[in-house]
Specification:
Length: about 425
Amino acid sequence: MRQIAVILVALLMSIAGVVKTSAASSVSYTIGLVESKYITSISAVQYIMYDEDMTRGFSFVIKLPAGQEDVELGKTYTLDDMTHQYTYTFVNSMTYFTAVKFVKSLTNDGRVQLSISATTGTGTSAVTYKLHYEEPIVLPPTGETIQVVITEPIEAEYYPYTKDWLVIAINDDYEVWVDVFSEDSESVLGEYKSADGDFDFNYTYLRRKADNVKIHAVEAEAVIALDGQIMTMTATILGNDGVVYDVYASNDTSILTYDAREQDFEETFTGYTFNDEYFEEYGGMLNVSANNANRATVSIVFYSEMAVLQPGVYPISSTWEKGTAQASRGIVDGYVDPSFCGYRRVEDNYLDVPIWFMVEGTVTVTADGTIIAQAVNSAGRSVRCVLRKQSTPTGCEGIESVTIAVKRIENGMLIIRANGKDYNAQGAVIR
């Protein structure tokens, strides 16, 4: 989650690129998040920052004298004071700066502010980024309390490098991020208090959707518990606006993340693709996939004695036994685990959410090659797919193949995993 120091450098060095424009230009960004870390190995401080939409990032690594761990207030640092190969802007690739002016100072009321001018390219291809950051104003408590109740799925992910859990819960009114430090990579359950240093306040906040205002946490307490299969998060967050937010989020953990909770799925497909590439390696695995003109997509994994799809009834099971179809485990290591179906987005062909993960039911293969999946997902929604064989099953009536993609939050940004690569929300390759 933290793109800090060596780990960030090693990652982004592998995807370095150059961005050019047709004419010299200037663009301004208000910075929404700043992290800094002293790098002992090179006696330098690295500042990582993101714009308010968390789409464009910036890295500045400033060399310091021995014994000094941060920049001096009011001093202007230029590119000559920086480690060039670690000083760049990034979205889908790194673009190195050719000139920088970096100043850290205090506002009249004592808050940290950063004023930065950073240029990429030269001549008509130069782009100058004007960056400004001010530490949020913290208002005194107002005595007002707002209740935030969330019944949508809670997302929790552990980041071993920084040893913390990021928990995200969202409803129609608020997006709530809670980031807590923990040595336990297996479970997020527990009681957390900011007074004990349990929270990373860079990633603990609420975003009010009505006006897109980010409310920074000043103090926080949270209890994350599991009652049977129901996970709950009860949090009290004092925002920098002086308001206390009482957050209650609950999630049925028996329902897979992104699984459809409200709608059934029923589609027919003309033509499907058969794949026996992993038959030997994975104990008789066969895969059938298809798309249709409604932008629906389906992927079913079978386990078979032979490298052909034989007629019969295949129970959907998690045993991986031959004669069965595979029950989906949901999202596994950033990938969508078959068997599943869903719909692709028009704008980028990614698999949209919700997804229908088949966990129980049957898949019937008829003598003429028709495949009928009659299943339910983890939320009990009905899933019915009919795949009819076509003489040339290399596509589906001109519809291009689906890009299987999974969305997640990383470094405060939406990351989409597709076909072994990571993309940002705009569809650009990150790595």
